[in-house]
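Lab notebook, design round three. We kept the backbone fixed and only want residue identities now. Task for the bench partner: fill in a sequence for the structure below.
Input structure tokens:
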């Protein structure tokens, strides 16, 4: 089947991150290109800034597309996007490395096929939401206790 996808767009939301703002823009400027190059991407340009005291942003322009991340330390939230315009490029490793760096309790990943000339029903994004293991245990324990209390009545 000849797929007419021109590019893929991944968004990655990280919630309840365990991070510090200390030199965050500098760390992103140094670490992101290294991670991307290790995955075989070709870095053309990198920039990162403390937009204000509550927002750090970084952008890496790639031969294969671009990668951006916006981090809000006070909210313990990070929003990332990876736009790839070459077939076969794999963004999964960079997301795993960011998860190691930012240590979120919950993540949400959305995948869009850009330039999909298929049916309109095929244009819905795929969304995955995941919780960190400790969060799952806490939520399951709370549900079990609630269930046991209900059964005793």
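Proposed sequence:
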């Amino acid at each position: 089947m000849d797929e007419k996808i021109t590019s893929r767009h991944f968004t990655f939301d990280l919630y309840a991150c365990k991070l510090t703002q200390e030199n965050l823009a500098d760390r992103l400027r140094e670490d992101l290109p290294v991670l991307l190059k290790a995955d075989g991407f070709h870095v053309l340009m990198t920039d990162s800034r403390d937009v204000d005291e509550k927002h750090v942003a970084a952008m890496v322009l790639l031969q294969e597309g671009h990668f951006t991340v916006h981090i809000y330390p006070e909210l313990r939230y990070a929003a990332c996007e990876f736009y790839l315009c070459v077939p076969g490029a794999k963004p999964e490793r960079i997301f795993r490395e960011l998860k190691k760096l930012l240590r979120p309790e919950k993540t949400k990943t959305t995948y869009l096929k850009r330039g999909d000339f298929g049916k309109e029903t095929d244009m819905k994004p795929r969304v995955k939401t995941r919780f960190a293991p400790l969060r799952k245990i806490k939520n399951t324990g709370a549900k079990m206790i609630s269930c046991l209390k209900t059964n005793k009545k």
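Keep this in mind before ordering anything: The chain has a mean pLDDT of 81.
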